[in-house]
Amino acid sequence: MSIQSLEKYLPENTLPYLKKWFSDYYIHIKVTKNRNSKLGDYRKLRDQTHEITLNCTLEPQLFFFVLTHELAHLIAFEEYGRGIAPHGKEWKTTFGRMIIESLDIYVNELRPILQKFSLAPKANFMASPDLVKFFRADNHSDNTQYIEELERGQHFVYNNEKYKMEGLIKKNYLCVNLASGRRYSFRPLARVKKCT
């Protein structure tokens, strides 16, 4: 897929950045159906070209963010060598630099979140509550909410099972399954349905 054919998935004015970042490499871009396990992926092929896959369901700014993440892998590996950790300091430096360089692509509300994120990029944007809340804000018109918004003792439903919130343990929430009595740890941004 050519850079130009990616335009329908991207925010406006991204092509100059992509042309600059792509210019030294031959990259196969594949836009795939939605994958729950990942938003994008990078790998170097046997013929020494590169392949990046991205989910077609990503809204334009998230699509560009994920594409930047995957391009940062390619650029970091090429610049520092294949022996670096996939999400190590070299990748973090590269990705952070690329985010700051392309900051004007993003809407004003997202820019301070990305500036903060760029200082210590995470392998998975789900590890950044501010980014998750921004990118997922309009995806939840249903009656679910983040588990971190519940209070101790409240009941909720997750995957058709009923739980009771017991409290915060380190960074996660300890909850008890009311049917089995087993305790489970939930991440703060798990989406749950509060029982009334």
Would you summarize the structure shown here?
With 196 residues, this protein is an alpha+beta fold. It is built from five helices and nine strands, in the order αβββααααββββββ.
Overall description:
- The protein is α+β, with helices and mostly antiparallel strands.
- The protein has five helices and nine strands.
- It is elongated.
- The strands form two sheets. Strands 4-9-5-6-7-8 form a six-stranded antiparallel beta sheet, with no helix packed on it.
- The mean pLDDT is 89.
Low-confidence stretches: none
Largest sheet, spatial ordering of strands = 4-9-5-6-7-8
From the alpha carbons, calculate the radius of gyration and give it in angstroms: 19 Å
Helix content: 25-40%
Q: What share of the residues does DSSP label as strand, in percent?
A: 15-25%
Record field, number of beta strands: 9
Distance between the termini: 49 Å
Task: List the helices and strands in order.
Answer: HEEEHHHHEEEEEE
Secondary structure class reads alpha+beta
Task: Count the DSSP helices.
Answer: 5
* Largest β-sheet summary: 6 strands, antiparallel
Shape field: elongated
Overall average residue pLDDT: 89
